[in-house]
Amino acid sequence: xxxxxxxxxxxxxxxxxxxxxxxxxxxxxxxxxxxxxxxxxxxxxxxxxxxxxxxxxxxxxxxxxxxxxxxxxxxxxxxxxxxxxxxxxxxxxxxxxxxxxxxxxxxxxxxxxxxxxxxxxxxxxxxxxxxxxxxxxxxxxxxxxxxxxxxxxxxxxxxxxxxxxxxxxxxxxxxxxxxxxx
Length: 182
What we know:
This is RNA polymerase subunit sigma-24. This protein is mainly alpha-helical. It folds into two domains: 1-99, RNA polymerase sigma factor, region 2, helix turn helix motif (Rna Polymerase Sigma Factor, Chain: A); 101-182, Winged helix-like DNA-binding domain superfamily/Winged helix DNA-binding domain (Arc Repressor Mutant, subunit A), CATH 1.10.10. Helices cover 68% and strands 0% of the residues.
């Protein structure tokens, strides 16, 4: 069995294309949790997000030969997820808040853990109040770690627009979250 850890995403795509289609599973493993998190922020629903990611992986696999190996696979797959999520949002025309599960911490810092979890939940609620145009770029930057250029490629908007939307989103979040207490 081949160790794919040393393969870049693009090298792995080339391997899947030419050698072994079964190794596509490795690409799925690399991206599944990140894409699920991203899709959840777009759709505000874990079940729909899972459907979006599954459909996106299928579309990516079917269209793998059209992927330009000289570009970033990550940007390409995120764009597919973006398109699928937009299609789902348009189809259902309303956002449904995802269920937040309550976990009871096991350690001695139960009160601190509860406070931190509550703060995270409040920030997520504030983020959900932003329109998709602002929620998406700020999520890509701060939750997924993409830079302005990559966000521009994923969303297919100018870099200046990315910056504007991120700055406006920050200001909106500051207003929405001003009453949060740690």
